[in-house]
Amino acid sequence: MQPVPAARAATGSGAQQTLRHIGSCAGVALTIEIAAASASTADTTSVVALREQ
């Protein structure tokens, strides 16, 4: 990668910040999806265990 010329520093900074925010949002969405999948699996297991009693 080459540094951005001084005349386009704002554009480079804006692009970097945009990609940073997109990455953060994707990380949060993935974490929520994993947590939701784990919770639904745990809930299903609990319901099955209660039915068997």
Q: How many strands?
A: 0
Mean pLDDT score, rounded?
81
The biggest sheet amounts to: none
Strand content: under 5%
Shape: rod-shaped
Count of DSSP-assigned helices = 1
Order of helices and strands: H
Q: Provide the helix percentage.
A: over 70%
Instruction: Point out poorly predicted stretches.
Output: none
Terminal residue distance: 63 Å
The Rg value, from CA coordinates, equals 22 Å
Structural class: mainly alpha
Strand and helix layout:
Elements: H1 9-52
Account of the protein in words:
This protein has a domain at 26-53. The protein is mainly alpha-helical and 53 residues long. It has one helix and no strands. It has one helix at 9-52.
Brief characterization of the structure:
With 53 residues, the protein is mainly α.
Which features does this protein show?
53 residues; mainly alpha; 83% helix; 0% strand
